[in-house]
Amino acid sequence: MSDFPSSARPGKLLAIIGDEDTCVGFLLGGIGQLDKHRKSNFFVVDKSLYPSATNIEEIENAFQQFVKRDDVDIILINQHVAEVIRNVIDRHTSPIPAVLEIPSKDYPYDPSKDSILRRAKGMYTAEDFR
Asked: Which H or E element spans position 13?
């Protein structure tokens, strides 16, 4: 019997939704994966047009597909991409997969826009850490 809970077993994946620079950086770091159905754990958002040349429905679909996969425990998403599908991210309340908003080369991280961080701040007070 394994000592790990079913959602924390070794072999779980990170998924990436982001611009080309972000995805390439993580892929060069070795996180790239294809599952048995040849589906990747990354989705590149084309940033040639503002907010993106990639269709919003495509981004939402990629996010929903990563949420449904049982081999993905963490979804990393560029914060500027998360802003485009904020309503979909806000509806995701399950702790696994965790959704982490990250900066990109062209867009710095803004904690006031991170809905997951805002939700986490509401869970604890300063007295909880004394």
From this structure: strand 13-18
Residue numbers of the domain that contains 99: 9-129
Secondary structure of residue 99 in the 3-state scheme: strand
Does some domain include residue 2? no
3-state secondary structure (DSSP) of residue 112: helix
CB of 34 closer than 8 Å to CB of 69: no
**CA-CA-CA-CA torsion sign (4, 99, 89, 46):** negative
Residue owning tokens 């806000």: 90
Backbone angles phi, psi at 42, to 5 degrees: -145, 155
Look up residue 16 and give its DSSP letter: E
SS3 108: coil
pLDDT digits (tens, 9 = 90+) for 27-78: 999 988 887 888 899 999 986 645 557 789 999 999 999 999 998 999 999 9
Split into its structural domains, the chain has a count of: 1
